[in-house]
Write a structure and sequence with these properties.
Largest sheet: 2 strands, antiparallel
Radius of gyration: 21 Å
Strand content: under 5%
Oligomer: single chain
Strand order of the largest sheet: 1-2
Structural class: mainly alpha
Shape: globular
Number of strands: 2
Distance between the termini: 24 Å
Length: 263
């Protein structure tokens, strides 16, 4: 049953404009399922363009990816900081389309800003008992995770260091530290976000091996984008699930939270 909102507008149970006379001319936002599908299609188009070595296709699809995922988060009423993280990823994606060192550094800076957004989200919605602030097993698991990610950071930077251009060593090392912190922090949200953080770490490590001019896998750009897209999607899903769980466990006074629309 629809309830009348301000100025006579009719709203249905989801809080969106209904079909009453006060809702004429109001356009409903796209559904989460539609936007998730659009993201999937754009991702498939980009990956196929990379496999076919079709540069114009990659240039068209790549800038669409993170805005579509950010729109999905927006219609899911996800945290604004998650939208900001994804749009920082869009900035990095766009800069990296240009084959020049200033653009690469700008892209790295944009991704770094996104990692800071993620770290704040993990602090806000994460459960620290998953990796160390509790007693017994969680503390041991947390210590193992810290040791594993720290070892991965040290070994990767040490191996890459001699082969990196001298002016790139500092930026790559600093970015790697922030990226590793983000990947570890994602474990506070559970398996989905943890997998996303680990895949982001893998994707950017593949980029770094290219900068260091190490031997590459066939179609390294395909492997980089595949792991990156999976990472961003899993991180978004993990944050959305944690945010939904937090809101459901602490409803506002006098309000009853309606189930969110999922894809």
């Amino acid at each position: 049953m629809a309830a009348a909102g301000p100025r006579g507008a009719h709203r249905d149970r989801t809080g969106l404009p209904g079909d009453g006379p006060g809702a004429r001319g109001v356009t409903r936002p796209p559904s989460p399922r539609l936007l998730a599908g659009a993201f999937g299609l754009a991702a498939a188009g980009d990956l196929l363009a990379l496999l076919a070595d079709f540069g114009p296709g990659h240039a068209v699809f790549k800038p669409l990816l993170m805005p579509l995922l950010a729109a999905y988060v927006a219609v899911r009423r996800g945290p604004r900081l998650l939208i900001a993280a994804l749009l920082c990823g869009w900035g990095g994606d766009t800069f990296l389309l240009f084959d020049a060192e200033p653009a690469f550094l700008a892209g790295m800076g944009s991704f770094a800003a996104g990692h800071v957004c993620y770290l704040v989200l993990f602090k806000r919605y994460g459960d620290s008992r998953r990796y160390g602030n509790g007693g017994g097993s969680p503390r041991v698991r947390g210590a193992a995770l810290v040791a594993g990610y720290a070892l991965a950071l040290v070994v990767t930077v040490a191996l890459l260091w001699p082969d990196l251009p001298a002016d790139m060593r500092g930026p790559v090392a600093g970015y790697s530290l922030l990226l590793t912190a983000m990947a570890f922090g994602a474990t506070a949200l559970g398996a989905t976000a943890a997998a996303g953080g680990a895949l982001f770490l893998l994707s950017d490590t593949l980029i770094a091996t290219g900068v260091a001019e190490w031997p590459q896998l066939p179609r390294p750009d395909f492997a980089i984008m595949l792991t990156y897209l999976a990472a961003q999607y899993l991180l978004a899903k993990g944050v959305l699930a944690a945010a939904d769980g937090r809101q459901e466990s602490t409803p506002a006074y006098g309000e009853r939270r309606m189930p969110s629309t999922t894809s």
